[in-house]
Design goal:
Elements (H helix, E strand, L loop, with lengths): L2 E6 L3 H12 L5 E2 L8 E6 L4 H16 L3 E6 H5 L1 H6 L5 E3 L7 H5 L5 E3 L20 E4 L1 E2 L10 H5 L3 E2 L2 H13 L4 E5 L14 H9 L6 E4 L9 H4 L10 E3 L7 H6 L6 H12 L4 E8 L6 H11 L6 E6 L17 H25 L5 E9 L2 E5 L5 E5 L8 E4 L3 E2 L4 E4 L1
Parallel strand pairs: 1-2, 1-3, 3-4, 4-5, 5-6, 7-10, 10-11, 12-13, 13-14, 17-20
Antiparallel strand pairs: 8-9, 15-16, 15-18, 16-17, 19-20
Length: about 425
């Protein structure tokens, strides 16, 4: 039986999509060792030019080893046609073709099967290879059209997965021993808008399933925090960390980015959640065209006011075909990187202060990794914890009443 290796780039949604493909393989063996594979499926990311470069580099590496390469994921939509025309990959399969992977991999001639951007996955995922937590894709696509973002063009418009199917999937995974569930999608806050429901209502139902110990949410837009969502904020199974995408803290930049949020309303929302004890993360882009020194200084001063604990910051990367790609003036790369480092340092200070303030709160940690006799995992505030123990704690839930707050992590003995 031929062996298949899956290489997954990018976001949590891609992790889920890879597992959907694994579930649909019947006539192949999945291997965790790339070198043993006859076929390599590259589940690609195209969110930035850098992501495209990483995927191309990996494909070149595989070609030198003589591997049969299949391109899947968002890069199949944006770069698949050119890579296929250059004979860089044997096959290209779009998002809607994941359930057909077994048939496609049996083909003896090259194929370009891009599919459509309107479908939803029908596959029920039962397990996650090598993972301690389960990822649940609740929706696909995005109706936002932020000026810098290519994702709606490679994932399609927002469409919600059937609630009954989501519940069935969580029930099956809970029976298989998974206790932490990460809800993912292109824009999960839009869940239910097309079905007369909402993300808050869905999560409330999932929290009631036997075996569900913690629910973690992917990125949400500030405008998507509605009353149904506020109703779940005190539930014990909801992770005490929320990631709410700001992207910037200058009104001028939000306008250029075609964002739907407002800085002052965002600040009010963050303080409302902070007062409930949540750790709060966000996304932030530095160096987008138009980010003058004056705008940057205003944005940084505003960002200092936000009670943030985590940040996913990145420098602007031009994506051909997006409105931002033609905007002027462009910002020099070294300036964008310096701004990036300054906000990362700011939020690290805020994170340490948050952990010190919470030092008397016991931590509930799902242990995910072991390295050289020490274990690590994430607590309910999505902070990494390093645990020294003589016991094998891998995949266990651990309560830590005593721990040391260090700069990068909390450290404990168990």
């Amino acid at each position: 039986m031929k062996k298949v290796f899956f290489k997954t780039f990018g976001c949590r949604t891609n992790i889920y999509d890879t597992q959907v493909m694994v579930e649909n393989l019947k006539d192949f063996e999945v291997t965790e060792d790339e070198h043993l594979a006859d076929v390599v499926v590259v589940n690609s990311c195209t969110v930035t030019n850098g992501a495209d470069t990483g995927v191309r580099s990996y494909i070149n590496h595989l070609s030198k080893e003589g591997k049969k390469v299949i391109l899947a994921g968002c890069g199949a939509m944006s770069k698949g046609e050119s890579l296929f025309a250059q004979n860089r990959v044997f096959g290209v399969m779009g998002h809607s073709e994941k359930a057909n992977i077994n048939m496609l991999l049996q083909r003896e001639t090259p194929f370009f099967q891009i599919g459509d951007l309107t479908s939803l996955d029908e596959t029920i995922v039962h397990e996650y290879t090598g993972k301690t937590k389960a990822f649940i894709k609740v929706q696909e696509g995005c109706n936002f059209r932020c000026s810098y973002c290519i994702i709606p063009y490679v994932r399609g418009n927002a469409r919600s997965q059937d609630e009954a199917k989501i519940i069935t999937q969580v029930e099956k995974l809970a029976l298989n021993g998974y206790g932490e569930f990460v809800l993912t999608g292109t824009n999960i806050g839009s869940y239910g808008k097309d079905k007369g429901s909402s993300l808050g209502k869905l999560v409330q139902r999932l929290g009631g399933i036997r075996g569900v110990r913690r629910i973690r949410l992917g990125s949400i837009e500030p405008v998507q925090i509605d009353e149904s969502f506020r109703e779940i904020l005190d539930e014990p199974w909801l992770e005490r960390h929320l990631h709410i995408a700001l992207q910037h803290t200058s009104e001028k930049m939000l306008e250029l980015m075609r964002r739907r949020n407002n800085v002052n309303r965002d600040l009010e929302l963050f303080y409302e959640l902070h007062e409930k004890g949540f750790a709060l993360g966000t996304d932030f882009i530095t160096g987008h065209p138009g980010e003058s020194e004056a705008i940057w200084e205003e944005a940084y001063a505003k960002l200092e006011q936000f009670p943030l604990t985590h940040i996913h910051a990145f420098t602007y990367s031009k994506r051909d075909g997006t409105p931002s790609s033609t905007m002027k003036p462009e910002i020099k790369g070294d300036v964008a990187k310096a701004r990036l480092k300054s906000i990362e340092a700011l939020v690290l200070e805020k994170n340490v202060a948050f952990r010190q303030a919470k030092h008397t709160v016991p931590l509930e940690v799902l242990v995910e990794e072991e390295h050289d006799g020490s274990f690590s995992g994430y607590d309910q505030f999505f902070n990494k914890v390093l645990i020294h123990s003589r016991r094998d704690l891998l995949k266990e839930w651990v309560r830590l009443d005593a721990y040391d707050v260090q700069k990068e992590v909390n450290v404990a003995s168990f």
